[in-house]
Amino acid sequence: MRLQARGSAPADWWIRQVVKRAAKSVGLEPLRMGELRHSFVTWAAECGTEVRPVDGGVPLTRIAATIGHQSAVTTKKFYEGVKVPPMIQLPIRLEHPEDPISLLERHLRDGSG
């Protein structure tokens, strides 16, 4: 949700800088991206679930509106016929106190909304 609000994913070099800074702030060695990849593979092998796209999907007009295209023509040009491979779902929950949903929940919980 934070990436959607930002409008794009951060660059690889920026992710490495953030991980390095975070590790330094808590007195640990920074994680290497290969270690994160290894963790994903381990979790996926031990407790992951394969998720496959359903036939039919969402209409291109709705997708176009969601991603900000003025018409489905642009969306169709770049994405029609692209097949989504099966994905792996891990039973972990990643949360951050600045996630928009967390801010909303906190706002409602604190009674200020």
What does this structure look like?
This protein is mainly alpha-helical and 113 residues long. It has a domain at 51-88. Helices cover 53% and strands 5% of the residues. The protein has 6 helices and 2 strands; from the N terminus they run H-H-H-E-H-H-E-H. The chain has helices at 2-6, 12-25, 33-47, 60-67, 72-79, 100-109, and strands at residues 49-51, 87-89. The chain has a two-stranded antiparallel ribbon. The chain is extended and about 50 Å long. The mean pLDDT is 80.
Element-by-element helix/strand order: HHHEHHEH
Mean pLDDT: 80
Major sheet, described briefly?
Answer: 2 strands, antiparallel
Question: What quaternary form is this?
Answer: single chain
Sequence stretches where pLDDT stays below 50 over 5 or more residues: none
Share of helical residues: 40-55%
Broad shape: extended
What gap, in angstroms, lies between the N and C termini? 21 Å
Strand order of the main beta sheet, please?
Answer: 1-2
Using DSSP, what is the number of strands? 2
The chain-level structural class is mainly alpha
What portion of residues belong to β-strands? 5-15%
Helices, by number, come to 6
Summarize the structure.
This protein has 113 residues and is mainly α. The chain has helices at residues 2-6, 12-25, 33-47, 60-67, 72-79, 100-109; strands at residues 49-51, 87-89. It has a domain at 51-88.
Secondary-structure blueprint of this entry?
Blueprint: H1 2-6, H2 12-25, H3 33-47, E1 49-51, H4 60-67, H5 72-79, E2 87-89, H6 100-109
Antiparallel strand pairs: 1-2
Helix pairs in contact: 4-5
